Amino acid sequence: QVQVVESGGGLVQPGGSLRLSCAVSGYIFSIYTMGWYRQAPGKQRELVANITNSGSTNYVDSVKGRFTISRDNPKNTVYLQMNSLKPEDTAVYFCNVHLRPVAITGTLDCWGQGTQVTVSS
Q1: So what's the pLDDT on residue 67?
Q2: How far apart are CA 29 and CA 31, in angstroms?
Q3: Rounded to a whole number, what is the largest CA-CA distance in the chain?
Q4: Three-point CA angle 93, 99, 102, nearest 5°
Q5: Cα separation, 29 vs 26, whole angstroms
Q6: Which of 72, 90, 107, 113 is buried most, with the most CB atoms less than 10 Å from its CB?
Q7: SS (H, E, C) 46-90
Q8: Residue 74, φ and ψ in degrees, nearest 5
Q9: Residue 9 belongs to what H/E stretch?
Q10: Contact status, residue 67 vs residue 60, Cβ threshold 8 Å
Q11: Residue 105: pLDDT over 90
Q12: Does the pLDDT at position 4 exceed 90?
């Protein structure tokens, strides 16, 4: 069984910062790409950023230069540092992890429960 748990969301004023964390636990053989998605009310879920197990990163254009994704492999944790936040960043942020559990040969996409980020004055 694999668990994906996000933390760090909240309410912040425009221009402020937040740091999201996502910890993965369970019977895991290997973790590949880790990423953050977000979904605003009435909109489709979109990829915000992801990072491979070798450290290559990818960002949606709207967050480039403001958000930074990183990972701590020994801790099976991925972070999203969000600076210069804007009201349009308001959304539920979901952690996504592509991994191979112990005892199966295939891979899985695992999701966290989501954490709310609200940017408002």
Answers
A1: 98
A2: 7
A3: 49
A4: 135
A5: 9
A6: 90
A7: EEEEEECCCCCEEECHHHCCCEEEEEEHHHCEEEEEECCCCHHHC
A8: -60, -25
A9: none
A10: no
A11: no
A12: yes
